[in-house]
Amino acid sequence: MSKLLRAVPVAALVAAVLAAPAAAEDTGRHTYTGTIAGADFKVETPDRWNGTLVLFSHPYYTEQVPGGIGHANRAETGDWLLEHGYALAASNFRGRNGFVVQDAVTDQVNVLDWFTEHVGRPRRTVATGSSMGAAIALLLAERNPRRIDGVAAMCGPLDLAGTWNTALDITFALRTLLAPGTDIDLVRPRDAAASVAALNAAVERAKTTPDGRARLALANSFGNVDGWNSAYEPKPAGVDEQILQQAAIDELFFVGTFGPGGRVDLERRAGGNPSWNTGVDYARQLATSNQRDLVRAAYRAAGLDLTADLAALNNAPRIAADRQAKAWMSRYAVPRGTTPSPVLTIHNVADAADPAHERWYAEQVAKHGDPGKVRTLFANRATHCAFSAAEEIVALRTLLRRIDTGRWPSTEPARLNAAAAGFAESYQKVFDFATFQDLPRRPAYTRFTPPVPPRPSNR
Predict the structure, then answer these.
(1) CA distance linking residue 27 with residue 200, whole number of Å
(2) What is the DSSP string of 360-404?
(3) Whose CB has fewer CB within 10 Å in the chain, the N or C terminal residue?
(4) Whole-angstrom Cα distance, residue 50 to residue 44?
(5) Mean pLDDT value of segment 74-81
(6) Which domains, and CATH codes, for the chain?
(7) pLDDT tens across 421-432, in order?
(8) Residues 347, 224: contact at Cβ < 8 Å?
């Protein structure tokens, strides 16, 4: 570590201390902000603290995401927690944007230290987070087993290494099948913006023809990408309609966010490219995908030879990972499933962050942890992190009951939905990535069996 990096935390810690209350025993509703080791943080305390701290880890942010530090996936959830005596804390992480997982755990521990010194020692601390923040919350608990009493992981790509490999598989198939011979960099991009534009242009062209739509479906099958992308509408019945919804997910997530542009930040942090598709058999990937029937129907409608396209993928030049970058990813971004404290996960049944992550995590827990400490909840809804505050609060109360009693309460969907329905309409809003609207929806907990993970780590 350079002298400059060693000097930064000292000055940053001074700024953090300036945000502290006058005395540790001070009580009442307060908001404290500051900076520790280059990471902005925010702490909020209620009028009468019940001794529980909820420590929130934020999702993957791009530069387009507005600033500010949130304490929950939904603001109403944070407001309810404060009103009911819970203290809230969050770091914005050094650099804030991009794949900040290495710094995030340290930054959250720094906030926890600050809280303990300036507010009080929590009786129990719950780590929570949404999307990438869900995986960070798991990592935080595994690496600080005596400080975290439970984890609520929401809509998480819990196997972050597998997530980047899946994104590579999808963009690799898009380039190979829809833009052959083009100069599109999927990793180590020389001009990330140009590569993103070229991939999205290929997706747009493909949407207009039966052949293109069939190949879009095949590419998306490698990520279990569901053809349902609306929190407000039912899943489309038609093949073409489902593929068009998959294409919208491609453009926003797998190309627009985690495509070549996202690789620039990832590779800077990892010291190279941590993703690969060497040795991947794409025919086998399709055979295990929960989207294989959609692919076959689209190929029949187009009159295309599916076997020929799979052969084209399997014969295309592959991408190898840089060894040190792959090791970095395994070290900093893959939870082991040791479950030092109870874990509750919540996921929609259709999400760009594949619900197969819950299945992957269960496999890790079976090897390294205690399956009895884990419960998984699913909402019968599509798109990313589309939960109401009522659903989130019910999930958190379920986890807190497990922490307090050592036993899980009933997680039957009917009971959970009844509990969520008891909240006012202001707690029933659900954000829809497909339309960027935020409207009330009925509670939607359901039974669900997640699909097979497409590219799991540590299997």
Answers:
(1) 53
(2) HHHHHHHHHS-GGGEEEEEEEEESTT---HHHHHHHHHHHHHHHH
(3) N
(4) 13
(5) 97
(6) 3-157+335-446 (3.40.50.1820), 161-328 (no CATH)
(7) 999 999 999 999
(8) no
- In angstroms, the Cα distances linking 101 to 105, 145, 269, 290 are 7, 18, 10, 29
> d(Cα 246, Cα 229) in Å, to the nearest integer?
7
Give the Cα-Cα-Cα angle 387, 392, 396 (nearest 5 degrees).
Answer: 155
Strand duo 124-130 + 150-154: pairing: parallel
Which pLDDT value is given to residue 8?
29
Which of 253, 186, 243, 5 is closest to 106 using CA atoms? 5
Task: Look at residues 422, 357, 352, 351 and name the one whose alpha carbon lies nearest to residue 391.
Answer: 422
**243 Cβ contact list (under 8 Å, min separation 6):** 207, 213, 214, 216, 217, 220, 227, 294, 298
Answer yes or no: are the C-beta atoms of 291 and 221 closer than 8 Å: yes
Q: Tokens 């929570």 belong to which residue?
A: 128
CA separation for the pair 219, 213 (Å, rounded): 10
Query: How far apart (Å, rounded) are the C-alpha atoms in residues 453 and 158?
Result: 11
For the entire predicted model, the pTM comes to 0.93
**Residue type at 399 in one-letter notation:** L
**Cα–Cα dist 375/343, whole Å:** 7
pLDDT tens for each residue of 263-276:
999 999 999 999 99
**Can you tell me the distance from the alpha carbon of 131 to that of 348, in angstroms, rounded to the nearest whole number?**
12
DSSP letter assigned to residue 178: H
For residue range 385-398, list pLDDT tens digits in order: 999 999 999 999 99
Beta partners for residue 152, in sequence order: 128, 344
At 294, list the tokens.
């959609």
| 178 exposure class (CB count in 10 Å sphere: 0-12, 13-18, 19+) | buried
